[in-house]
Amino acid sequence: MVSRARVTDRRVLPRDEHVARGLEDAANASHRPYSYKLKVKSGRGRTKNVETMAYTRLHAFAKMITEHAEEGRDFFAYNVSRALRYQAKVSDY
Fold it and tell me: In order of start, what are the domains of the chain with their CATH numbers?
């Protein structure tokens, strides 16, 4: 099984390595998690809009693979947007 996610050298990552890197990023994070909104699709199933809390983009993808990917099917995650870190704290203009 191969993840569609690619790293900078255009090498395709296996799903297990992708999840391991995401969990490692989360363990090394020195900030609170961000809110990520993205669309996920596994195989020929329907596209789902998902919102999750993750430390980095790689961690968000790792969470989506473990929660939504199906065995033996391609998995796609796209239209990733991150909520602003201090958005909830802004009270005066």
Answer: 2-84 (3.10.20)
Mean of per-residue pLDDT scores for the chain: 78
d(CA 63, CA 66): 5
Per-residue model confidence (pLDDT) at position 7: 47
Give 19 or 2, the one with higher predicted confidence: 19
Using an 8 Å Cβ cutoff, are 27 and 37 in contact?
no
Q: Which is nearest to 43 in space by CA: 12, 5, 4, 70?
A: 70
Residue 18 corresponds to which tokens in the numbers above?
């992708």
**Beta bridge partner(s), residue 50:** 38
Greater pLDDT, 16 or 92: 16
pLDDT greater than 50 at residue 62: yes
Q: What is the dihedral of CA 55, 60, 63, 65, to 10 degrees?
A: -160
Q: Which amino acid is at 45?
A: G
Q: How many CB atoms lie within 10 A of CB 35?
A: 16
